[in-house]
Amino acid sequence: MLFLLGVNLPDDKLVRIALTSIYGVGRRTGETICHKLSIHPQCRLRDLPEHKVTELSQLLNTMTIESDLRRETENRIRALVDMGTYRGLRHQAGLPVHGQRTRSNASSARANGRFLRARGFST
Amino acid sequence: MEWNPTTVARKNLGRFVSLPQDFISKVPAAGPNLDRQFKLVDKPALMFRESTAELIHLIDKEGSKDACSTAFVVDGARGSGKTASLLLTASHFRSKGWVVIAAPRVSQWFSGIEPYEPSADGSKYYQPDLARKLLESIVAWNPSALEKLPSLGSSGQTVANVAASGIAGAVPAHDAFEDVVKSILAAKDRPPVLIALDQFNALFRKTEYCNAKSQPIMSNEFAVAMVFHNILAELGQPKTAILGAVDKTESLVNSYYLQNLLQKLPAVNKTAGKALDQPAVVDLASRDEFEVILPPSINPVHNDAFAEQFKQTPKHISRVHIPEYSHSEVGQVLHFYSQNNVLYKEVSDRLVAKWWMISQGNPLDVFKSCISL
């Protein structure tokens, strides 16, 4: 396992897939990172040379990921709540924010809402 | 029967021949269908067809010229035996003492398996591991011939020394590869050279790699492919024959650019069959540079990014069309499969006729229908 920026990345996976283990990096961003660093699509993390790992680390440092991203998300939600907006009220209530139905479903929002309320709206 | 230069005789047409072990051991993969067939019959056996004999004759004639005038491209329907013809031809000329530069699976160069890095100016991309593998294969294919050829780029050294330096990493692998190929082609006192590339269409399409802006990289932007594109664009090399086989089995290897080039060319071999996918000839007043009449919205060549960017067209291409099996050839194949326990049926005239009708003479369909029973 490669330990990078506080995250354990699985060695046996493709680099562009392994990078998705980082909070804030999805498949598309993972591919874009590989393109910028000229990492071939079928490269596994264990086959990455040392200088590429260094470049990868430097590039990831310039991005908003992990704790920085979580903090930013938390601040945005808290700002909505503090302003007293409708969206903030929905976050507080643990209900869907984007106009979905609540007569049925909405279980994800309810589960996340409980989670967010427990943590004081910090993610 | 083992395949060697003396096997190329009319009396052996239709017979199955085994590729020499020292040849097939240097071919890591002939293709999924051929590899499966070799595994099932427990030997690398292929049928010696009249089209293969004609191809060998064309290559022999081209290799004896003072200047290479054309590149032969083997075309045909999916599973018609293009790779088989290429393997038999390459083996034949290797046994005759020619210098053979062969690449059985060109698609692997651009499928994202090999590491790559941009050049300093960003105009091309290097694949050091691939260049090293190609150097190793050139040395393996021609163990003794390279030691007698002088290097163009490194004075006082032979091509074998340059190749060894490139493989060991003493010099950049791509520079060594380019030097080796150019030196071989420019050398005066040397045997004829055969450049044999399977999946030739992979050289004329976009690759699985992307640049820093996430745009797909075209195959001609890779340094290794550039070496072959330059050879095809210049031609004129002494005692050299170039042979490429198109692959229609893998959809990711398809090249609309090459397909369009080949469609316009008549076949140069007498055994060419009638192509089933000829477009209808419609006389219209205005045609574009490819003489294609379809509107841009549905014409794949217009939407082919490679066709827009690629300016270094091959100087001359000759199309060699591999026909489907004839009725007698289907009989020979079924008899061979029956002898080697691939087909568990009694081979009669009626069975052969039925199989020929069902498969329409396509070798791959004959094979697949035998193993599915």
From TrEMBL, chain A:
Organism lineage string: Eukaryota, Fungi, Fungi incertae sedis, Chytridiomycota, Chytridiomycota incertae sedis
Glycosyltransferase recorded as keyword: no
Species annotation: Polyrhizophydium stewartii
Family matches, as Gene3D superfamilies: 1.10.8.50, 30s ribosomal protein s13, domain 2
Keywords: Ribonucleoprotein, Ribosomal protein
Keyword Ribonucleoprotein appears in the UniProt entry: yes
InterPro entries to which the protein is assigned, alphabetical: Rbsml_uS13_C, Ribosomal_uS13, Ribosomal_uS13-like_H2TH, Ribosomal_uS13_CS
Annotated PANTHER family: 30S RIBOSOMAL PROTEIN S13/40S RIBOSOMAL PROTEIN S18 (PTHR10871), SMALL RIBOSOMAL SUBUNIT PROTEIN US13M (PTHR10871:SF1)
Superkingdom of this protein's organism: Eukaryota
Family of this protein: Belongs to the universal ribosomal protein uS13 family.
Name recorded for this polypeptide: 30S ribosomal protein S13
From TrEMBL, chain B:
InterPro entries from the UniProt entry: Ribosomal_mS29
Chief site of localization: mitochondrion
Tree of life domain: Eukaryota
Pfam families named in the record: DAP3 (PF10236)
Alphabetical UniProt keywords: Mitochondrion, Ribonucleoprotein, Ribosomal protein, Transit peptide
Compartment(s) where it occurs, according to its Swiss-Prot or TrEMBL record: Mitochondrion
Keyword Cell membrane (UniProt): no
Family: Belongs to the mitochondrion-specific ribosomal protein mS29 family.
Record-given protein name: Small ribosomal subunit protein mS29
Organism of provenance: Polyrhizophydium stewartii
Organism lineage string: Eukaryota, Fungi, Fungi incertae sedis, Chytridiomycota, Chytridiomycota incertae sedis
